[in-house]
Amino acid sequence: MFEAAILGAYPAQFETEAEAMKYIEGQQTCPNEVRPWVRNMKRATGEKEFLVIGGGPTPGRGAA
Question: Which residues contact 1 (CB under 8 A, 6 or more apart)?
Answer without folding.
Answer: 13, 14, 15, 40, 41, 42
